[in-house]
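Hi R.,

Here's the chain you asked about this morning:
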Amino acid sequence: MVKQKVVMKVSMNGPKSRTKALQAVVAAPGVISAGLEGDDRSKVVVIGEGIDCVALAKLLRKKLKYVEIVTVSVVDEKDKEKDSKIKYSTWPYQVVTPQSYMYQPPAHRYQDPYCCIL
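And here is the predicted structure, written out as tokens:
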């Protein structure tokens, strides 16, 4: 299959609509990467193999009401340098292992001969 680059202009009303657009695009079959471009980040750039751009536009229309396909092009090896400039939004997740603490009572309590626990 040939890698394709699809650029679509989408109506963005805020960060919630950006999230909806990226979630819808990433869930489509054949998508390798997705990102936002433009001054107001209103263009969605999708790179993948065997992408049906019309089906992708219909999917985005259900979510965001307005979608316009700007360009559909074939990705060459030279275009990888341009694609690396796209900034992706990711959430930094960090897995932290909880530490266990052991309580050791002072030694002098157990050395008292008159202390009795029943």
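One quick note: Strands lie at 3-10, 31-37, 43-49, 67-74.

Cheers,
M.
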